[in-house]
Amino acid sequence: MKKTIDKELLDFIKTRSCTKRDAYENVIEQFEVLKQVLKDFSEALHEDIHKFDERIRVKYIEKSKAEVHLVIAGDVLVFHMHSNIFLFDKNHHIWQSSYVQKDEKNAFVGSINVYNFLNDSIQFNRQEDLGYMIARIFINKEDHFFVEGKKELGYKFNDFTNSKMTKTKWREIVTTCIMHILDFNLLVPPYRQVSLVTVAEVNAKGADLQVKTGKRLGFQFNDDSDKTT
Description:
The protein has 7 helices and 6 strands, in the order H-E-E-E-H-E-H-E-E-H-H-H-H. The protein is α+β, with helices and mostly antiparallel strands. It has one domain.
C-alpha cells in the first residue's frame, strides 16, 4: 500500500528546496553571462589602453567554473561564485522591500563575491599577502539583484525590488569595481613592521616575496565604514 506523504512537508520542500534550486541554477547562468562580459570587456579595454600605453596589462583568466580573474595593470579582480543559497537575517533591509514582502521566496539569493588582490601576490604565489572583498552581488531566481560593497558599490546598486540583472548592469558593476580598485592605492607599511626579515625568507624566494603585502597593510582600515580613501 502506497503511503501518503504529508502535504505540509511537500509544500515546505516546494517553497524551500525548489526555490533554492531555482536560485542556484539562475546564479550559475548569470555567472556565465558575467564571464562573457568580462571577456568582451578585457578585449576592448586592452585594445583601447594599448593605443596610449602598451605596458599596461589587461587579461581575462578563467580559473574554474566558479572563479574568474580580471587582471588590470598591477591589480586583479577575483570574481567567485558561492556554491550555496542564502537567506538574510530578519533585521536586514531586504525584508522591508515590497518585492520580498509580496513573496518571501524572492529573498533566497545566490552570491558572487568580488575581491581585489595585487597582481604580484597571485603571480608570485605570495600566500601571506592580503586581498580585500570589495563587493558582494546577490541575485535571486528572477534575476533581481543588489550589491553590498565599498563606496559607490554600496549604494549604486541597491534597489532589489526594481533592479534586474542584464549584460548592461554587469558592465556597470564591472566598471565600478575597476574604478574602485584603481583608486585604492598600495600604501607603504610602517618601518617597524617590515624592518626584520629572517634568513629563511631571504634564502627562499627573496625578502620581497616573503613579507606580507596588502594595499592597506599596517594602516587602520575601516572595513565596514564605506569611508575608505
